[in-house]
Amino acid sequence: MLAANLRRARTRRGLTISELSRRSKIGKATLSQLESGTGNPTIETVFSLSRVLEVPISDLLDARPSDGLVTVRGEDVEVLRGEGVDLRPLRRIESGDAVFEVFDQRVRDGGRQDSLGHVGTEHTIVQAGRLGVQVDGREVELGPGDYVGFDAALPHSYTALGGAVRSVLLLQYGADQRLHLSAPEPGVPCAGPATGTGPELAVGNSGRV
């Protein structure tokens, strides 16, 4: 799924593998493996591709919407692993021009996950543990029931404080940040640079800025 979607997104942006490698800091050999379906991407790889290609994560992973009752078993979902975080993509939700992606996010004990930024607005709700969040130099500490939201284009990081952290990650995208997989047209001019649609940094409950 990633192979065809990555190739489609790269073509729509008019990028060669060499140019995509330069912009994403991902080796050409790795990109070639991903496009051929033999690679095994990490969180860092997928988010870097999302940032450079300016498309939602689910447009690359091809999470298709379904009607009626939807049940997703966490144990059946392929895990995206990063330096400090395990992500399980659970659901893609389309509402009007907006797209939402729901992830089960687990920050490993002592783990830290850094991001240079990517497309969309990021929302996180902590379920268990204490989570340190840094966004563009600002820091908050969250506990169970706390929420943080911010423009995902800003550099940010998650750190587990004193034990593993369970949380729900929700990524939100606008219409101009979608790949529109149903009608790929190589050579069609792509949208301009994506802009965040949400607050720069919003903290709910007991989070401290």
Automatic annotation (TrEMBL):
Give yes or no: UniProt keyword rRNA processing.
Answer: no
Q: Name one GO molecular function term.
A: DNA binding
Gene3D superfamilies associated with the record: Jelly Rolls, lambda repressor-like DNA-binding domains
**InterPro entries the UniProt entry points to:** Cro/C1-type_HTH (IPR001387), Cupin_2 (IPR013096), Lambda_DNA-bd_dom_sf (IPR010982), RmlC-like_jellyroll (IPR014710), RmlC_Cupin_sf (IPR011051), TransReg_Diox_bact_type (IPR050807)
- Segments forming domain HTH cro/C1-type: 6-60
Mind listing the UniProt keywords for this protein, alphabetically?
DNA-binding
**Coiled-coil regions listed:** none
Q: GO CC annotations? A: cytosol
**Superkingdom to which the source organism belongs:** Bacteria
**Pfam families tied to this protein:** Cupin_2 (PF07883), HTH_3 (PF01381)
Protein known as: XRE family transcriptional regulator
